[in-house]
Each structure stands twice: as structure tokens, then as C-alpha cells.
Amino acid sequence: MGKGRLEAFSDGVIAIIITIMVLELKVPHGADWAALTELLPVFGSYVLSFVYVGIFWNNHHHMLHASSVVNGRVLWANLHLLFWLSLLPFATGWMGENEFAPLPVALYGAMLVMCAAAYTLLEKSLIACNPRDAVLGVAVGKEFKGIASVVLYLLAIPAAFLHVWISFTLYAAVALLWFMPDRRIEARFTS
């Protein structure tokens, strides 16, 4: 079956996720810098989550572009990824509203672990349903960035109970690692 509806549906869900996150940014009750300063934790968690959703969307786009077909397993794997991504606004809001308290920061890391696992499942499902010589199957090899991301997320979860800024730094490091799209796929389209 074609992949157009899957791409359109996924893009729509991701747009809604970003919309929900931005709606958590409440207008301050004051017209001075102090009113804005109170919003910094909420804004900081929003920026981090916006970057993460953008990274997942960007890599999702590249992965589907490199695929020629999808099947029922891919549809369910995609829904699984969208489920975990759809919980990011909750984790983002909880973390920001509680000024990066340990439990919300740890939960944020758990959500990112689940998003990464779901993305990997979708990637494997797409590779399995496309021809062996398809761009995606050829391009995806060793998963250094994927494995490193999960390891850093897993380290960040208990680190939140030591000092939340360790966790936040690890989350930011993973985001920087993925900020550029997966070059393995892009390189196959240009060669």
C-alpha cells in the first residue's frame, strides 16, 4: 500500500502535538521582565520538547521518503511512535510547571526512551516491508546515534534525583546529536 496517507496523518498528529505544547505557554500576568522570568522553566521545557518533536518529525520524514511501501505492521508501529510523542506535551508541561523537579524530569527521560524505542520499531518495520535493496535498508547500518541516545536517556533518568541539571544537560546533548538529519539516508539520495 502507498505511504501518502501515513505521511499526512503523521504530519497532522505532530502538528497537533506542537500546538498543544505551545498552548501550555500562558500569557504572563504582568508587563515587566519579572513576569517573563517566571515563565522561563515552562519556556525552557517547551524549547527542548519542540526541538525533540522536530527531530523526530525530520527523521520520520527522511525514513518514509526512503521507503517505497508500507504495510499493516508499519501502520501500527507508526501509531505506536505517535502515541509516545503525543505524551510529550504532558511530560513537558509537568516538568516546566514544577520548575524541573526530579520526578517530572525523570519521567521526561522515560518518555524519550519510549519515543526512541518506538522510532526504532518503526524503522525496523519499514526495512522489513521494503525491498532489501531499498534506500532505507541499505542506508541504515550501525545505530550509533540511536544507541547513544538511549544510553544517555537512561543515565539521565536516575541523574534527575541527584541533580536535575545533569539530566537536562544530557537531554540537550542528545538533541544536539540529532539536530542534523540522519546523513545515512540523505547520502543515498545524492549518490
Quick summary:
The protein has 191 residues and is an all-alpha fold.
Structure commentary:
With 191 residues, the protein is an all-alpha fold. It has one domain (4-190). The chain has helices at 4-23, 33-37, 40-65, 72-86, 88-97, 102-129, 135-139, 144-159, 164-178, 183-190. The chain is globular. Its main location: membrane. The chain crosses the membrane at residues 9-27, 33-55, 75-95, 101-122, 134-156, 162-180. It is a multi-pass membrane protein. This is DUF1211 domain-containing protein.
**Helix content percent band:** over 70%
Main sheet: strands, sense, barrel: none
Q: What's the number of extended β-strand segments?
A: 0
Tell me what portion of residues adopts beta-strand conformation: under 5%
User: What's the shape?
Assistant: globular
- How much is the radius of gyration in Å? 18 Å
Q: What separation lies between the terminal Cα atoms?
A: 27 Å
Organism: Duganella levis
Membrane topology: Multi-pass membrane protein
Family: Belongs to the TMEM175 family.
Main location: membrane
